[in-house]
Please model this.
Amino acid sequence: MQFGIFSVSDITRDPVSGETPSEAQRIKAAVTIAKKTEEVGMDVFAIGEHHNPPFFSSSPTTLLASIAAQTERIVLSTSTTLITTNDPVRLAEEYAMLQHVSDGRMDLMLGRGNTAPVYPWFGKDIRESLPMALENYNLLHRLWREDVVDWQGSYRTPLQGFTSTPRPLDDVPPFVWHGSIRTPEIAEQAAYYGDGFFANNIFWPKEHYMRLIRMYRQRFEHYGHGTAAQAIVGLGGQAYIAKRSQDAIREFRPYFDHAPVYGNGPTMEDFTSQTPLSVGSPQEVIDKTLTFRESFGDYQRQLFLMDHAGLPLTAVLDQLELLGGEVVPVLRRELAALRAPGVPDAPTHASLVRAKYGDAEPRQPRPNANRGDNVTGGSPYQDTDDVRR
Model:
């Protein structure tokens, strides 16, 4: 079971101090939070992708590569990589590069995004977002698994004899999670490829996510990747923790009341009773999080949202101390004791290499450096074996 932090990269006014951090401050804070996540013993740090204010993370691979250089153990991921407005060729290149520079300590979560104005900025039509997501991932999946790709689709120019570089580390593509809050077709896509499915599990009652996860598990088994119980599931969650419950409620209330994602809606008490949000003592957060297993079954990854709603960096770091020091160790122990036999661990680069190659040395692709030319990129070779050697 992996535990970690995911961020949506918002830049929000602190309602207590009245200060709004700059982009530079939030970017540096994200690096600090990731390093602290590793320091307190958690496993994953994930950052979203946004191209509009008030968010800062337009280039998650750049940020994660910087974090990779300053950490040793933590898995670096995305809490959304936009499979619609990004070119799948560019995604194949950028995330394979991140895989190399992080020594395999990475994976990614694909999503369509829910910000309508972004689509025309990248020359896309939001009305085509679902078929675009399905087609783009089909191409991305092939680019990481085939040394030479011939391809034609509806949403980008055709490819002829194309080799994406660098090739995946150890000839094993990054593990992919498909994130969705509402779309059965995305759960179906994750199941078809045998990938992971991540339910945001933040704003809505658990029954909404239970339907999507149940469908994903059933279809995962249908496609022959294992039993429904062996499907790879990740969940989001939100928490604000203090030693005493009363302090947590008092401290978090102004952030809840003024946050763009909550404000002017249900009260904090109603929201915590109806959604996965936990505001309270370490034991209350433990108890609430353990109910996730009761609703969704055994799962592989639990990520918490903490650096949002204008919370200052000092408060976030204090939260991580409590989460990593008092909450996660108990959750690890309790969930391990409850776990059914045969439920797999979260995939890692090492486990994926082992599954493909066993004890053998993994293949190291070496695309021919002399293939093509610097003007057209065309290939003088008819035999595609040249790029496989």
